[in-house]
């Protein structure tokens, strides 16, 4: 895998590539990932970047770590990488947001019906880390982890595949840059409050409120992305 064009501090891209490795089954039969040092060399990033990516994957429930033994794949993810690569050049950012609006509110509703207390605690932890992030790389990392965990808790195979496809398409550096340009300190505070509203509804096991809160959040993201793209075009 050639990674010389990858920014050294982009944890989200490192996370995406580790997830692709898992999707493709490029791990030994016992499910143990390469060491942090080996992943660092393979992905051409620092060990700190690899460690943060693994931390996010562990928080999502995709991998688990055993001290002295290594990091192991926790569950088999959906394989969508090839199709996502084919679609990435044919869809624009607003089309992706349309798709998110069609899928993620229902995932939030299902999550509200199926989440355990531990699931809610993990969602709050991810939202808090996103809120405390001091750079766009960290914001992408923890925000994405929170949305992926909602999809995983929802536990609907068909919706999970659709969500995974969208998430893979939006994982490129170019798409991350577009989202970052549409953010501001004021908007980040709004998004933090919206994340809290989504999780509060999930905690209350209120599927209707969770669906509405996720719709409100994604609609704000869409509107602000549209404004940012229009400003760039002008």
How many separate domains make up the residues? Answer: 2
CATH C-level name of the largest domain: Mainly Alpha
Q: Strand tally, please?
A: 2
Spatially, the strands of the biggest sheet line up as 1-2
- CATH topology call of the largest domain: Four Helix Bundle (Hemerythrin (Met), subunit A)
SSE string, helices as H and strands as E? HHHEEHHHHHHHH
Structural class: mainly alpha
Percentage of helical residues?
Answer: over 70%
Which word captures the global form?
globular
**Which strand-content bin applies to the residues?**
under 5%
Q: Span from first to last CA? A: 38 Å
Major β-sheet profile: 2 strands, antiparallel
Tally of individual helices: 11
Average pLDDT score:
84
Unreliable stretches (pLDDT < 50, length at least 5) are 1-7
| Name given to the CATH homologous superfamily of the largest domain | GntR ligand-binding domain-like
- The value of Rg in angstroms is 17 Å
The CATH architecture designation of the largest domain is: Up-down Bundle
């Amino acid at each position: 895998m050639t990674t010389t064009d990858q920014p050294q501090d982009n944890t989200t891209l490192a996370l995406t590539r580790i997830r692709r490795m898992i999707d493709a089954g490029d791990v030994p039969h016992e499910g143990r990932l390469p060491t942090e040092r080996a992943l660092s060399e393979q992905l051409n990033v620092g060990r700190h970047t690899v460690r943060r990516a693994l931390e996010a994957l562990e928080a999502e429930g995709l991998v688990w770590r055993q001290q002295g033994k290594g990091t192991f794949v926790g569950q088999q993810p959906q394989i969508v990488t090839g199709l996502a690569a084919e679609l990435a050049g044919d869809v624009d950012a607003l089309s992706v947001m349309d798709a998110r609006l069609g899928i993620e509110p229902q995932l939030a509703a299902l999550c509200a019906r199926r989440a355990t207390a531990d699931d809610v605690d993990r969602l709050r932890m991810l939202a808090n880390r996103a809120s405390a992030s001091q750079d766009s790389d960290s914001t992408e990392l923890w925000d994405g982890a929170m949305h992926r965990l909602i999809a995983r808790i929802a536990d609907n195979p068909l919706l999970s595949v659709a969500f995974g496809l969208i998430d893979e398409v939006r994982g490129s550096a170019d798409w991350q840059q577009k989202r970052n340009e549409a953010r501001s300190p004021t908007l980040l505070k709004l998004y933090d409050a919206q994340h809290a509203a989504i999780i509060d509804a999930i905690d209350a096991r209120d599927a209707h409120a969770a669906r509405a809160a996720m719709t409100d959040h994604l609609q704000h993201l869409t509107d602000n992305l549209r404004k940012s793209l229009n400003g760039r075009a002008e």
